[in-house]
Amino acid sequence: MQITEIKVAGLNDFLEGNLWQNLSPKPITLLRAISQSKNPRANAEDVALIIGYEDNRLLGLVGLLPDFIHGESTMPTSSNSCWWVDPQKGKHLAVPLFLKAFALCKQRMFMTDCTPHTLQILSRTNWFDFPEIQSGIRGFLKFNLHEVIPSKFPSTGKFINLLKLGDHCLNFLLIPYLKLKQNRFRKIGCKVEYLSVLNAEMHQFIEIHSQDEFIRRSGIDLEWIVQNPWIKQLNNEKRGALVAYPFSHLVKQFKQYFVKITDSGQTIGLVLISLRDGHLKVPYSYFHENHAQQVIKVIYRECLSQKAVTLTVFSPGLVKRINTDPQPFIFRKRIKRLIAVSKQLSDSYQKYSVLQDGDGDIVFT
Amino acid sequence: MNKSQIFSKIESICTQIFGEGTVITETTSASDIEKWDSMNHVTLIAAIEKEFGITFDIMEIIGMTTIGDFVDVVAKKQT
To answer: Which of A68, A48, A44, A31 is nearest to A360 (CA)?
Structure first.
């Protein structure tokens, strides 16, 4: 068994080499590697991937996404972007691989969406702090039983076609009600502009509205994210021919775009919208608290025009508006996000404790 | 404390974590014990640290793959 680390500068060579060609499953996709190699916050010597393998079988991997705290290059950090071991042959590798990654990023690591299991493991190491649980909202704009029920009760997966039929019938019956309820959200009372790149005004707007953020992405970072996704939209015919990878990377629908919001000629908000298989998220949002109501209205309108099934939001300003203002959902539920910050970063996190929904690697997935 | 005494204590910790009847030798590693997963790995490390009043550093943990490795590192830290 061998353990190898791949630096950001070595990703291209790794993809072209025999090891990547022969390993199964693949430790990194082409898209992730390209994206990582263009990361504006990474140095060539930063480690992006640690893998354990035997012959041509991948036994485990830990991914790192190099980043800066508060956008300062003098405060490097990394988020843990993936942690996987082969369930049969790799379980002994989970902790050593993770700790190797932890050591390589000089114990300056954070995670913005831990599973309870990961949190439990980390809590026993004594190297991490666990700030407050972040509360968010998931609003449902349509019935979506065929995804919700099997995710909670996997044995119901065999009834997926029946559940799809149920969704179809319920959504059909609700058309008049939904039209009545949701039509009012199509009028927003401000102007929106769809952007694929950000001009100097937008760069400055982001800078002004991100003063307290822990990661504090710049306009350049956001453009890199949108232009270098980790997820690929693919039609069904092409799926069979693709490489095995332990994490989802192929979906039916994936797009990300910026929405600039102006009122009376003045920019009042900028949001990055992410739509994946009907699920809409807002990884990054910039606005003054006074304009939160207009911003959430624009997001609702995006949900309706994109025919989204759900909207997921963690931004406290937006969550507050969802809870207090009229909203277009059939129903909504509270969701939570578990965060881990290594003790080396605790002081910085106390100083800048605002996290955007997409911080870490969440914006990519 | 000699290595044999250290092994006995670690063996007892392993029995608590992995269950009665688990066969522990110096060459035992995660691949020999079904219940030795990531959670129990960190539990084992924390329990050994507590029992012997020591703290492992990351590189030591990465290097400890068998029970014999744990015994050696604990013995080294006690001298």
So the answer is: A68
Q: Which of A2, A99, A119 to mutate to test the interface with B (most CBs of B within 10 A)?
A: A99
Chain A 138-177, residues with CB within 8 Å of chain B CB atoms: none
Q: What is the mean pLDDT of residues A194-212?
A: 97
**Residue whose pair of structure tokens reads 């990961």 in the numeric block:** A118
Contacts of A154 (CB under 8 A, 6+ apart): none
The tokens of A226 are what? 């949108």
Tokens for B78?
């006690």
pLDDT band, residue A66 (cuts 50/70/90): very high
pLDDT digits (tens, 9 = 90+) for B21-37: 899 999 999 889 989 98
As given in the structure block, the two tokens for residue A184 are 């009012």
Q: Does B54 touch chain A (CB under 8 A)?
A: no
Query: Whole-angstrom Cα distance, residue A226 to residue A223?
Result: 5
Strands A109-114 and A331-342: antiparallel
